[in-house]
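Q: My labmate handed me this sequence with no annotations at all. I'd like to see what the chain might look like in three dimensions before we decide whether it's worth expressing. Could you predict it?
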Amino acid sequence: MAIGLGRMFGFRFLENFEHPYVSRSITEFWRRWHISLSSWFRDYLYIPLGGNRGGRARTYFNLVVVFALCGLWHGASWTFLFWGLYHGVFLVLERAGLGAGLERTPRPLRHVYVLLVVMVGWVFFRADHLERANEMLAALFGAAPFASAVEPLALHLDRMVACALVAGVIGSLPWLDAARRAYERRVERGANPIFSALLELGAFATLIGLFWLSAMQLASSAYNPFIYFRF
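A: Here is what I predict for the chain of 231 residues:
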C-alpha cells in the first residue's frame, strides 16, 4: 500500500517483500521477507555487535540476540520473543551445517522445509499466549484431545476464503514479475503496437476490477482494525 500510494505522488519505494514463500532456506526467507526491517537490524544491531567477524560462537550469539529483539520489536509478549528466537535458532542451525545439507536436498523438499518452519512459527506469532500456541499446534498435527478440537474446516471455508486462498497462492509466486520482464523485452524488440495497447488496457481493467472488489469487501465489513494495532 505504501509503495502504491507513494507512486501516485511520484515517489518510488523499494519492494519490501520479494516473494519470500519461494525460498528454499530460512536464510533466504529472511533475505526476502520484510527487507527494510531485516536491513535495519543488520546495519544497526548485527554489524555493531560484531556480525560474523568474531568466530562461529560469536556469530551464532549475535544472530540469536538480533532475532530475539526482532521478536520483541513486534510486541512485548512471550509469543513474539519465542517467534524471534525460533527463527534465530534455525538461522544458526543452517550456518552450522544444516544449510550445507539442504543444498544436497531436492528443491521441492527444501521448499517444504521452509514452509513447515515458517508456518509453525506463524502460530506463535499469532497466538495470544504460549499455551494457546501449543493447543493450536496440537490441533494442527492431530494430537489435540477430542474435546478441545477446533471447528471443522467446512465452517470457515466459504467462497470468499477459497478465493482468497487461491489469490494468495497465485500472488506469492514470481510469475507476474517474469511476465512483466518478458513483456518489456518484447517491447524493446519492437512489439506490435495494437497488442501492446490491448495488454495495457487489460492490465488497467484488471486493476480497476481488483480495486472495486476490495472496496466492496471493506464496505461490507462491520469492523476493520488496523493490523499493527496489535503490536
